[in-house]
Design a protein that fits this description.
By secondary structure, the protein is of the alpha+beta class. The protein has three helices and eight strands, in the order βαβββαββαββ. A hairpin with a 2-residue loop joins strand 3 and strand 4.
């Protein structure tokens, strides 16, 4: 049995809607799939201490994050009957209103795709060493709490 290659989930900057649409389009030929579940994480323009978040600058301990994501991927594939799983997370500056996380799961039926997508998002947020520095409109910043 060959070992699966560790996939790079990181994208510099925001994840474009064109990239997301292209990813969805590529699955139309896979006619055994009956359900897709997609989660898009978007940077919010939160107001904190009377200052508005303009962007988030994402950094990661990439080598560890990719190894952990590989294990999460293996766990989720062994738990759910998925056809496909795609995860993309931004690094660098992502402005408010832009997409920073794209999780896309596919299965023969909708329920496994939905459950797997939900579990992936929760585990990514809880387990991966990825940090966000909130950049405010006045150019000040603070480290973001993962919620």
């Amino acid at each position: 049995m060959t070992e699966k290659k560790i996939k790079n989930i990181f994208v510099q900057g925001a994840i474009s809607t064109v990239f997301i649409a292209d990813s969805i389009t590529k699955h139309s030929s896979k006619t055994e799939i009956g359900g897709h579940s997609i989660f898009l994480g978007q940077v919010r323009a939160d107001e904190i201490d009377e200052k508005q978040v303009a962007a988030i600058d994402y950094t990661a301990y990439e080598e560890l994050a990719l190894a952990q994501m590989h294990q999460i991927r293996e766990d989720v594939f062994s738990k759910y009957p998925l056809s496909c799983m795609h995860v993309h997370h931004s690094l660098g500056v992502v402005n408010a209103g832009e997409i920073c996380l794209f999780v896309f799961t596919s299965s023969k039926h909708r329920k496994p795709a939905m459950d797997a997508c939900d579990e992936l998002v929760e585990r990514i947020k809880a387990e991966l060493p990825i940090w966000g520095k909130e950049i405010f409109a006045d150019a000040s910043h603070q480290w973001k709490e993962n919620k």
